[in-house]
Amino acid sequence: MLTYLIRRILTSILVLFGVSMLVFSIIHLVPGDAATAILGRQKVTAENLARIRQELGLNDPIPVQYFHWMEKTLQGDMGTSIRNNLPVTRAIMDTLPSTIMLAFSALILALILGFVLGLVAALNHGTWIDTLAMGVSVSGLSIPTFWLGLLLIMLFSVNLGWFPSISTGSDAAALFLPTLTLGLPEASFVARMVRASMLDVLSKEYITAARAKGVPEWGVIMKHALRNALIPVVTFVGLQMASLLGGSTIVETMFARQGIGRLAVLAISNRDYPEVQGVVLVIATIYVLINTFTDITYTILNPKIRL
Questions:
Q1: Per-domain residue ranges of the chain
Q2: What's the confidence (pLDDT) of residue 18?
Q3: Residue 234's closest CA among 199, 283, 193?
Q4: C-alpha–C-alpha distance, residues 64 and 191, integer Å
Q5: Which residue has the higher pLDDT, 48 or 275?
Q6: Spatial contact of 252 and 261, defined as CB atoms under 8 Å apart
Q7: Which of 128, 184, 209, 238 is the most exposed, fewest CB within 10 Å of its CB?
């Protein structure tokens, strides 16, 4: 177990190192002169160009630039935003909790709704209940996120007036529509995966043996089938939590919610490369950490995976 953990953590560190190099390269992949691109429509003068190059360290050799950038980043200094002249770290820390709250709420909704739908479909395989559950699941997968958000706004905000169309707080009313928009498609994925995984496990010989021994059906499902069926679902949950954090951009923009996704949109539209670098690095780091935690969780559900 310890060997597996050490190997997995070392692999994650190497991945983070590669991610940091890719994020650092963002500013050097800009066509032409990076300082001119950053200035954009501003007055491009020799003084402004010199100031930008000095602030971003563009006059140093690239390996030196990377070393200085990593040194500051590890100390919590991701530079200063060109858009508003504020620390990038502060902007990210101000918006990240809002995105985490939205992603976590959407994940909880997806797990509860998807798990119930998938389990009911699997236990009623081949019946009209199974067909109805999978029909609902396919419908959830077929509707684009932006279109689903617009439909929910029209229904609950414009027509019924139950929930605000602008999500500016952390209360349940402000989170309801963004959570539905982000969580319903994920619930469809969870439902299909739970159903497929449960059907695969229920066809195994050890399930037949447990039933032959007289184990009650609820015991067969809860004790034998469910635990093994959860392994692929855990994989999905880990990946989806990370993708929800990175994929909340459309939802946050649609509902004018101040999150890290909306921050990324503003940074890109304003060519604020220090802020873009910071946002991408934070999201990528969270993605790697969640994947590492997911791999470690495998060993708890099935110790054979350690080998």
A1: 2-74, 90-269
A2: 84
A3: 193
A4: 50
A5: 275
A6: yes
A7: 128
What is d(CA 89, CA 79) in angstroms, rounded to the nearest whole number?
8
Across the chain, mean pLDDT equals 76
Lookup: tokens for 22? 């890719």
Q: How far apart are CA 260 and CA 92, in angstroms?
A: 6
Residue 82 and residue 275 in contact, taking contact as beta carbons nearer than 8 Å: yes
CATH fold of 90-269, please? MetI-like fold (1.10.3720)
pLDDT tens readout for residues 56-70: 666 677 787 788 778
**DSSP-assigned states of every residue in 51-119:** HHHHHHTTTS-HHHHHHHHHHHHHTT---B-TTTS-BHHHHHHHHHHHHHHHHHHHHHHHHHHHHHHHH
Q: Where are the alpha helices (DSSP H) in the chain?
A: 2-24, 34-39, 46-56, 62-74, 88-123, 128-142, 145-152, 172-202, 205-212, 217-219, 226-246, 249-254, 260-269, 273-301
- The number of residues in the chain equals 307
Question: Who contacts 21 (Cβ-Cβ below 8 Å, separation ≥6)?
Answer: 66
Q: Which residues contact 92 (CB under 8 A, 6 or more apart)?
A: 78, 260, 263, 278, 279, 282
What residue type is assigned to position 210 of the chain? A
Q: Amino acid letter at 39?
A: L
pTM beyond 0.90, yes or no: no
